[in-house]
Amino acid sequence: MTGEKVLKKIIVSRQIHPADFLKFLTEKQKKELLTRASFLKGKRVVHINATGVGGGVAELLKSLIPYFRSLGIQSDWYSINPEIDKKFFDITNKIHNALQGAPVKISNKDWVEYQRVNKLLAAEIEKIDCDIIVINDPQPLFAGTYLGFEKKKIFFCHIDTSAAFKPVWEKILPAIGVYDRIVFSNSEFVNGDLPHSKLKIFTPAIDPLSPKQKIVSKKEARRYLKKQGGIPADYPLVAQISRFDIWKNPLGVIQAFRLVQSTHPEARLVLVGFNKAKDNPAAAVIYKDIEAVAKKSEDIYIFFDPKGKNVEEFTIMAQNGADVIVQNSIKEGFGLTVVEAMWKGQPVIGGPASGIRKQITDGENGFIAETPADLAERINLFLADPAKKKKMGETAKKTVIKKFLFPRLVLDHLKIYQSCFKSK
Question: What is the pLDDT of residues 328-349, one digit of tens each?
């Protein structure tokens, strides 16, 4: 990539009105949100992340920007140009895994390349007129260390750094320290070396106004999945909707499904992990490994290549149409697919990841499964007892309404933006 810009502005044309979402808040929350928005009116907040499509951060930003604008806060979003040298994303994928505890070796040459691209990012960020720069995740993290202007800087970390691989962490820690605020979605993800005075914790959420949160009948959803994916409509369906990543543990899902088939031989499994994100080149490798295992059975359906598919619509239908939804993550920043399914009345069987446990209370609004055998047992329970599943699904939806809707997340953002303009 020569002569092209490293940052790409993401055009967000959607417009909403505050009345559309204020109804989801209590009167006390509504008053606080409007007061804080009034303080920030006219300020400009710019978010930077790795990719404009695919992944939870892009999903969040796609909705956050219209909410901020509706409140009179100027807001824009830039991502790293997907045409940048693929090597950069290979390196940042290594960094991502190392921060989550994998013993990944990153060469000096890799660090030089990572820093080189971040210097280019910083040079372009400096030209953006704004009051607050918000950097999301490790890919553009080092850009903050090269910024020469006095803007407020916030770093959002959506991954678990609590047991980061030390050689990589020692390189990353000083870069995080330059930010005015450091935000995590989970207190358990915070590495003890981070400056506590700068830390803030708040969980992600879903946008109830987004088309992605559409609720349709199971019958309609299954008809769609049969037509668009060849998945039989008249068999029990188990689904994991998540990109192909070692931390999502799709192989464990297949192992559990094999056990389920001894009790429910008619069951089918679908793994929906369309590869839209450009910042995760390892996904194709994971997919090929899973495909090699799955193709031994005609009862398993895998979706990776988005070509010819309406990815959002397919995802919606899978979430609405499955008899059992699982999210078998070993590590997970939060896992928006869990709360999306819960909003649709689906109790989710989650893996042991800390981010999943923030959403699922075991035995109340879903289950936590530690092993493939545990996962199979819970799947069998839901398949055998639809009434219990329905009751837990109702509790799951109530959990989302209370804790994980966007208006609450917007209020959290306004609080931290405002705090940047006050004494610490």
Answer: 999 887 888 999 999 999 999 9
Residues 89 and 140 in one domain: yes
What CATH code is carried by the domain that includes residue 415? 3.40.50.2000
Tokens found for residue 336:
């928006």
Say whether both 294 and 376 belong to one domain: yes
- Calculate Rg over the CA atoms of the chain: 21
Report the greatest alpha carbon distance in the chain.
63
Domains held by the chain: number: 2
Q: List, for residues 338-388, the tens digit of each pLDDT value.
A: 999 999 999 999 999 988 999 999 999 999 999 999 999 999 999 999 999
C-alpha to C-alpha distances, 342 to 41, 58, 235, 260, nearest whole angstrom: 34, 20, 22, 22
CB 347 within 8 A of CB 392: yes
Q: Which positions ≥6 away from 284 have C-beta within 8 Å?
A: 244, 275, 304
> Cα separation of 330 and 337, whole Å?
15
